[in-house]
Design a protein that fits this description.
By secondary structure, this protein is mainly α. Helices cover about 65% and strands about 0% of the residues.
Length: about 300
Amino acid sequence: MFIEILKKLFDKKENLDDEQSPINTLLELTKYGEAMFEKDIKVKQLQAKEMLSVITSIENKYANSKNADLFCNIAIAYRNYTAWFVRDNEQKLYLEKAIKNLRKAISIFPDNIDALYELSRLLINEKSIRNLSEGIAIAEKMQAEGKMPLPLNSVLARAKRQLFGVKTEDIFDLCSFAEDPSPAVFREERIKIRTLIRTYKKEKNLEELKNILDKYYQLGVMFAIFFEDSDSSSSFGGEARVNAQEMIPKICNKIKYTYIEKGKIFNCNYISENDWKTFEKVFGKNKKDFDVVNILDEIL
């Protein structure tokens, strides 16, 4: 199918000046994502060969282009090809091709947010080409300019945790979740909190352990208010996220509840059963159940 599209694309000499056509072709390659579920190995190999042929043909033909969007889309196509068809050590080759095209896009148009976002994300997330310092620097520059895409919030937080470790002051203020109350952000915050819990346990630092558990409890309360029994491992409905973005600024400074006062948060899977055992060991067992269903009326 795409070989025919490619043939038509390259049969027309005027298409060298029409760079939207190859971009459209690259965008259509997302259909190859279905190959992830293909059980026939030969069919899957054929689809991989076809997709790579389209990408490399476009990359070679338009090597001297000055279209930043074209290079950004070539990079994303390589990224997708790697995710769908390439495994283990071979990934580095194609991810490096993605990086090369993203750098081309940025050299043509330094303020290309899509390319900057993708470059930062790949440098942080992909082990074979990882460069945390550069990935963080790109993200922080966008953040300082108010241009950082929301999905990069959790990626940046994770990179900083991996590079610099975690300190109590790194834990988000509840109000900061209004910007991006997504599952990934809540998951990353929980990872940081659990890291500190383990650290303070090992150090036998009871005061800091109690402090971080109080923060964890308050985060759990806010999470349960908006997302009920979810555990942050899956996406939240759009309506719930919009509601959270609207309401968090109004209540974030009013959530002061503690485990000692209220007990275990009813139906809150964000805090695991294992975590609740830590609360019990540190503060003593509290038989109360804190149901936050109608707590908004009390807070507001």
